Amino acid sequence: MSTILPHLSAGPEGRTPIVFLHGFAGDRESWLAQTIAFEARRRVIAFDLPGHGAAIDWPEIGHAGVSAKAVIGSLSAMGVGRFHLVGHSMGGATATIVALKLAEADRLASLTLVAPGGFGAEINHRLLRRFATATEAHEIQALLEQFFGFERPIPRSVAERMAERRRDPRVTATLARIVESILDGERQKSFDLGALAGLPHPVRLIWGNQDRVLPTRQTLGVPGTVGVHLFAGVGHMPHLEVPREVNRIIAEVTAAE
């Protein structure tokens, strides 16, 4: 089996690439608005994390630490040295672990976290557990609405595509395993956020004030050196709800190289 996670890779070589890590129950296509925006200017890489998308049969599946190991190994196998890193939700927790592990190696040029996991103990565990095992389009639609801002409509086609993929029983079984590895009962495992102050590169945090998965107040625990961007009327999916604004922030933080 390949030692490289399934991924999208596009754009020209030369400038430092941007690596995108999706959230729980997502896949590399979650970042289409971002990869399309940046691929004309630099290389972009969007992975399917272990247990997701085309990586459903990855040898080791579990929490963000498992994904971080797979991401680091994949980038090394691909010959990627220095890179910018962007992660959402569980992918944000994964990105944070990658950043902390590679801090002394100086491989990261920047870290952008979108509603990341691990920034506090509170988490909507009921929603995640139900979403992991939902198989019918109407049920998935109702649960998906909880991930977005109150006035953000979710096209029915999104839920229908997810229901189609979940006809494979491996999908929900794997997601159920992953969600239990993320959670510690009714809470989530969290970082010592003070460690972010020691990272040698810019760190940005993007969050929506209507996030019903991870409360926005978890931004209050970050060191003052971390740039925080809060969006009104946005839920847990800022990169999908306000993609132009998120792309602008990514462009600013990656502009130096």
List descriptors.
16% strand; Rossmann fold; alpha/beta; 257 residues; two-stranded antiparallel ribbon
Describe this structure in words.
With 257 residues, the protein is an alpha/beta fold. It has one domain (7-122, 188-254): 3-Layer(aba) Sandwich (Rossmann fold). It has 9 helices and 9 strands. The strands form 2 sheets. It has a 7-stranded mixed beta sheet with strand order 1-3-2-4-5-8-9, with helices on both faces. Strands 6-7 form a two-stranded antiparallel ribbon. It starts with 6 loop residues before the first strand and ends with a helix.
The share of residues in extended strands comes to: 15-25%
Number of helices: 9
**According to CATH, what is the class?**
Alpha Beta
Q: N- to C-terminal separation?
A: 34 Å
- Main sheet specs: 7 strands, mixed
**Number of DSSP strands?**
9
Question: Which class best fits the helix and strand makeup?
Answer: alpha/beta
What is the name of the CATH superfamily?
A: Alpha/Beta hydrolase fold, catalytic domain
CATH architecture assignment name: 3-Layer(aba) Sandwich
**Strand order of the biggest β-sheet:** 1-3-2-4-5-8-9
CATH topology assignment: Rossmann fold
Pfam family, one: Abhydrolase_6
Protein name: Alpha/beta fold hydrolase
Organism: Methyloraptor flagellatus
GO molecular function: monoacylglycerol lipase activity
